[in-house]
Specification:
The structure holds 2 protein chains of 2 kinds. By secondary structure, chain A is of the alpha/beta class. Chain A contains 11 helices and 14 strands. Chain A starts with a strand and ends in an 8-residue tail after the last helix. The chains are: A alpha/beta, B mainly alpha. At the A-B interface, strand 6 and helix 3 of A face helix 1, helix 5 and helix 11 of B.
Chain lengths: 340, 274
């Protein structure tokens, strides 16, 4: 099978910062500082036509991996092939077939209009003049900037520039597109539009492939056919979002919101089958949310009995199946939000 | 054959796309016309009036006008070629250029062509002012040769700019000082407003590596004949210009290859604020 992306034992090290002379673990000057390992032997295969996500916290190695796959960076060891081409030896041929968009960034020249900008980026990929203009108009429509087609970039808001930057990636109609945190910094509606477009783009072209990095769990869950969880340069698990949930036995998530919290935590923690208990105070409502996992759904009866015995009437009580977030915590050992 | 044609089409379009930014920029910012055209011409005028005030031979006024003409291109090479990739990096375009399939030289060529066209508006205004308003002496009997030398000088100058662009990128945030360091001394070294012979033979040999010095000296000889106090024979200067153009392009190619290799090894070059 010809993969869209295939990596074998991919490793990337960076020299420690010259300014501090310290390595990643903070060892002082004097001792020869160890290199910072960004990727520690990544084996990965992505099928053609797949929408594949790399989910991980900041510094997990997502962007480094994307930079290697898009020919911006050499691996220290190991190999990577994209569209069947070696990223080191066949970089020039490969660049015709891929595109990279980094979210939260914007590029182009303030003096050009949005339409001219997309046309210009098309020229760098050799897109014929007329076709580049047609695609520019189509993409501006998709990212909701068609009424700004004649506006100069330096008159756009930050969000509008980011949307334009996203559109830029698609102007060459690449075989494989790499999206590095594509919705970073976008408002909710714009992010939703971006996700919708990615799905539509892929649906209309069944041999195209999308590889995206994200640290938004919802995005990975909603968008990706398969997700790899990456942390500290290692791929820890790869499967469909549904499949990943099945990988770990995470039980049922419960949130109980109460106004009287005295001693409730200890009592809940003492119940059989209750794990991962944590309190989340809600000062604006003067309540406390107790989050915990029940090993079995039937254990909810004990919880209700405890609340009744203590005369606590919950303001709110919800239960839900394990989410990708639960899977992430179970695999990585910490929540994504802990990195922020 | 098809591969070569595809390559030419791709890089031709890329060069055109990049040149478009420069060309269109010239029409969209009226303030640039003032800062890039009118103000520098005042500097040229000042030299013309100094020479008139001192009662210097009128050929000196031609030196100043031709110097003003070529200065437009040197400024363009320095700020819009050499320093440009550093600004591109800060604007977030450099990473894109490094992942695009076109050659870096296509982008540099686009910058050069766009820069030449933009600088030409200023050069034409200054040159026209010299001829039609100031009536500086100029013999046009060898104008075709002068045009040839002019084009050869531009090729060599912009090839130098391509090389400098890789060096400037390496210097990162110091680029502003670096561009300034290159700007003023070159006014002196190239004899922009005075006969370069005045610097003495050793200085000319040292600075003769600059296409600006060679091109100006040759053009002055073609427009002024013996009054130009030329330093080297025009034929020799033509050969040296052609050689310097080829050499600068070759050095630029090597320099960019080394830079790109280093960028991929270290992973820092395309990052902003590095």
């Amino acid at each position: 099978m010809e993969w869209a992306v295939e990596t074998k034992a991919l490793r990337r090290e960076f020299a420690p910062s010259r300014q501090t002379g310290k390595n990643a673990t903070g060892e002082a000057r004097g001792a020869r500082p160890a290199p910072v390992v960004a990727l520690a032997g990544v084996d990965l295969t992505i099928r053609k036509g797949e929408l594949y996500g790399l989910l991980g916290p900041n510094g997990a190695g997502k962007t480094t991996l994307l930079k290697i796959l898009t020919t911006l960076l050499y691996p220290t060891t190991g190999e990577a092939r994209v569209a069947g081409l070696d990223v080191v030896r066949q970089a020039v041929d490969l660049r015709r077939r891929i595109a990279l968009v980094s979210g939260g960034e914007y590029s182009g020249y303030g003096i050009l209009t949005t339409r001219e900008t997309l046309w210009m980026f098309g020229q760098f990929y050799g897109v014929p003049n007329k076709e580049a203009r047609r695609r520019a108009d189509e993409l501006l429509e998709i990212v909701g900037l068609s009424d700004m087609a004649g506006a100069r970039i330096n008159r756009l808001s930050t969000g509008q520039r980011q949307r334009l930057n996203f559109a830029r990636g698609f102007v060459s109609d690449p075989e494989i597109i790499f999206l590095d945190e594509p919705t970073l910094g976008l408002d909710v509606n714009a992010a939703r539009e971006v996700r919708r477009y990615v799905r539509r783009w892929l649906a209309a072209r069944d041999t195209r492939t999308v590889v995206l990095t994200t640290h938004y769990l919802l995005e990975a869950d909603e968008l990706c056919d398969r997700v790899s969880i990456i942390d500290r340069g290692r791929i820890l698990a790869t499967d469909s979002p549904m499949g990943l949930r099945g990988h770990v036995r995470t039980g049922r998530r419960v949130v109980v919101e109460v106004s009287q919290a005295d001693g409730l935590g200890e009592a809940l923690g003492a119940l059989a089958g209750v794990t991962n208990l944590r309190a989340s105070p809600q000062p604006e409502k003067n309540t406390t949310q107790w989050h915990f996992t029940l090993e079995q759904g039937s254990h909810i009866a004990q919880v209700l009995e405890l609340l009744s015995r203590r005369g606590v009437i919950p303001v709110n009580l919800t239960t839900h199946d394990s989410s990708l977030e639960d899977v992430f915590v179970a695999i990585v050992g910490r929540a994504l939000e802990d990195e922020a | 054959m098809k591969r070569l044609r595809d390559w030419l089409v791709l890089n031709g379009r890329a060069a055109g796309g990049r040149a478009y930014v420069r060309i269109i920029g010239a029409t969209r910012e009226p303030s640039w016309i003032l800062s890039d055209t009118i103000l520098p011409i005042l500097g040229m005028l000042a030299y013309v009036y100094i020479y008139r005030g001192l009662g210097a031979p009128r050929a000196y006024e031609t030196f100043a006008v031709l110097g003003g003409l070529m200065l437009a291109y040197w400024i363009s090479v320095l700020w819009s070629m050499a320093a440009q990739f550093y600004w591109e990096k800060q604007m977030g375009n450099l990473e894109f250029y490094f992942t695009a399939p076109c050659s870096r030289f296509a982008i540099l060529t686009g910058m050069a062509v766009g820069g030449m066209i933009w600088a030409s508006t200023r050069a034409v205004v200054g040159f026209g002012l010299g001829i039609f308003v100031l009536h500086v002496p100029m013999d046009f009997s060898r104008a075709p040769e002068a045009a040839g030398i002019f084009l050869l000088t531009l090729v060599a100058l912009y090839a130098l700019g391509m090389w400098l662009s890789s060096l400037f990128l390496l210097y990162g945030r110091e680029v502003w000082h670096l561009a300034n360091a290159f700007q003023e001394p070159v006014y002196l070294a190239s004899g922009l407003y005075f006969p370069v012979r005045a610097l003495g033979p050793w200085a000319f040999l040292a600075f003769g590596v600059l296409p600006l010095s060679l091109g100006l000296d040759a053009m002055r000889q073609l427009f002024l004949g013996k009054l130009a106090s030329g330093f080297l024979p025009i034929g020799l200067e033509t050969v040296l210009l052609a050689i310097s153009g080829v050499v600068f392009i070759a050095i630029a190619a090597i320099s960019w290859r080394v830079l790109e290799e280093r960028s991929k090894r270290e992973g820092k070059l395309t990052l902003r604020w590095q």
